Amino acid sequence: QVHLQESGPGLVKPSETLSLTCSVSGVSSSNYYWSWIRQPPGKGLEWIGYSDHSANANYNPSLKSRVTISVDTSKNQFSLRLSSATAADTAVYYCARVITLISGAYNFDYWGQGTLVTVSS
Amino acid sequence: DIQMTQSPSSLSASIGDRVSITCRASQSIANYLNWYQLKPRQAPKLLIYGTSSLQSGVPSRFSGSGSGTDFTLTISSLQPEDFATYYCQQSYSLPLTFGGGTKVEIK
Questions:
Q1: Which of B4, B32, B96, B98 to mutate to test the interface with A (most CBs of A within 10 A)?
Q2: Per-residue pLDDT averaged across A20-27, rounded?
Q3: Which end of chain B is more exposed for a tag (fewer CB within 10 A), N or C?
């Protein structure tokens, strides 16, 4: 059974770097793309980006200059770093596995429960 | 970016009702459309992928249809565990984008 669990600070100061980790169990992190998605309070879902263990990554252009997603196969986990955080980055952050179909389509078939990160001084 | 618009943004329904949620894309996305169910404090769940393919383990009362720009998620007979917020998502092009969500509440 695939299980994902987010971890990291729940409070980040403005201008600092928001860092989260997603621990993966039940499957090897070397075999898939892994993604981060967020949901600001009262708003919809926003895709942040995805990467595989070879650093083949794609990021949302709206965040690309500030985002890094990396995969650590030795720990079977992947991480998110979002620099220069502002209050607009306050959100529930979800990690998810990416499935790519033969057609080229993507979906997110397993998700973590999400973790709330607040950016405030 | 492809904009995804869901309607309605919320609805009230009773147990046993047939419920339909619509998702419209700002341009054609062929059948590259997925549906998710979100509940508070739970991991989101993939329901439908590729417009109409049921994800493993998802009850058959959920179905999806459509193509091009207009898509529908239908719940044939609403159950207590179906009260949640539903989101569509396109994977036709990057950046991947989601609809604004439809909250299904108890009447």
A1: B96
A2: 97
A3: C
